[in-house]
Amino acid sequence: MLFLRPLAVTLVPQLSSFACAALPCSLTVETRNGPIQGHLAENRSDVTEFLGIPFAQPPVGDLRFAAPEAYEGCGLHGSRPPFNLSFLTPQAQQIIDFFGGNAGTKRDENCLTLNIWTKAIQNGHCCGGRPVLVFFYGGRTSIGTTNSPFYNGQYFSDAENVVVVTVNYRLSIFGFPGAPDNVDNLGFRDQRLAVEWVRDNIAAFGGDASRITIFGQSSGGVAVDYWAFAYAEDPIVSGLISHSGNALSFPMNPENVTLSNWYNVSAEMGCGSDGNTIPCMRTIPWKDIELAASKLPSARSSSPLRSVPPFYPKPDGVTVFPNYTQLAKEGKFAKVVSISPPPFAALGIVRP
To answer: What UniProt keywords apply to this chain's record, in alphabetical order (predicted)?
Structure first.
């Protein structure tokens, strides 16, 4: 995550002068969902990491293709073991191929988790009040995962003395199905619920809930810019960083294409090609749906880099809008600090 460090330096000053509270502290923290067990980061021993924390009910069964629901579990949750990076080599092409292939990580429909890295637990004492940076990965809302060495927050947390959070959200047909008479843009709703969880629990990890910044790259940056308009009156966050993407960066599929893509998959699954096919689609193994969705081509646009995936965000008047230029002119966005670095500095850079 070194490419993100200059942004953090701009937005968040070093906090090394913060004093630790004279309170005992351990690698287990208490949250509203019960205790969570962390462990020391493999390459930064001053950083504690908490991996694979559920923030929503598993989006399976009746919750597949549904809006996310807050996690209701309790009891001790042990986070995943540290990442093993021994297989990485200096060869650039191998790294590029590795990244492009989703880093070879295991995929699962039950994916609504987040990871936290913090330096707040030091020498048996807790240090609080740190800024919090929540990251949304890119991938054109089609690929991506937090379970990647490229998004390992231990280095960022150590260098900038901040609490780093990475969020998993639903992608492709599971996050942006485009089904008729259904809740749209589920992946963006996942992001909102994750930030609500962070707001309610981050103090236990040494973070300041009043100093949350969300940031993202490419389609993650688009999601950040969308956020400013979707939650103009209740953004939760105090800062936005849209890196290489904003609300105007990518075209969307026409409504008829979105609908056709959904019914193409539902028909192949034997669920029909009209009417409400959601109940049937909830009974199909997720890997079968994923395979069928992967066969659909992306729609062409004026640039190969701006082709539109078959399952993509659509205007719903809640999380995504069709008229961002007009909304920006009317000032209908969250009035928080916003940074949009090049190359796609447009809407975000003019906002106060």
So the answer is: Hydrolase, Signal
Q: What is the pLDDT of residue 175?
A: 97
Cα angle 253-167-184, degrees, rounded to a multiple of 5: 30
Among all chains, which residue has been given the structure tokens 């646009």? 301
pLDDT digits (tens, 9 = 90+) for 9-59: 223 333 334 445 444 456 888 899 999 999 999 999 889 999 999 999 999
Instruction: Specify whether the CB–CB gap between 166 and 118 falls below 8 A.
Output: no
Spatial separation of the C-alpha atoms in residues 135 and 322, rounded to whole Å: 25
Model pTM score: 0.84
Amino acid (one-letter) located at 314: K
Cβ contacts of 156-160, under 8 Å, gap ≥ 24? 156/1, 156/4, 156/5, 156/8, 156/117, 157/44, 157/47, 157/117, 157/118, 157/119, 158/41, 158/44, 158/46, 158/47, 158/119, 159/5, 159/8, 160/5, 160/8, 160/9, 160/12, 160/14
Which residues neighbour 288 within 8 Å (Cβ) at sequence distance 6 or greater? 269
337-339 and 239-243 strand pairing? parallel
pLDDT in tens, 250-277: 888 889 999 999 999 999 999 999 999 9
Domains, the chain: 2-248+323-350 (3.40.50.1820), 255-306 (no CATH)
Q: Looking at the DSSP assignment, which residues form a beta bridge with residue 118?
A: 48
- Name which of 23, 7, 11 is nearest 203 in CA terms: 23
Q: Whats the size of the chain, residue-wise?
A: 352
CA of 298: how far to CAs of 39, 172, 194, 310, in Å?
Answer: 41, 12, 29, 5
Q: Which helix (H) or strand (E) holds 257?
A: helix 255-268
Angle between helices 286-294 and 255-268 (to 10 degrees): 130
pLDDT-above-90 percentage for the chain: 60
Is the pLDDT at 350 greater than 70? The verdict is no
What per-residue confidence (pLDDT) applies to 286? 97
pLDDT of 248 higher than 90:
no
For residue 153, the 8-state DSSP code is T
Cα 151 to Cα 85: distance, rounded to the nearest angstrom: 12
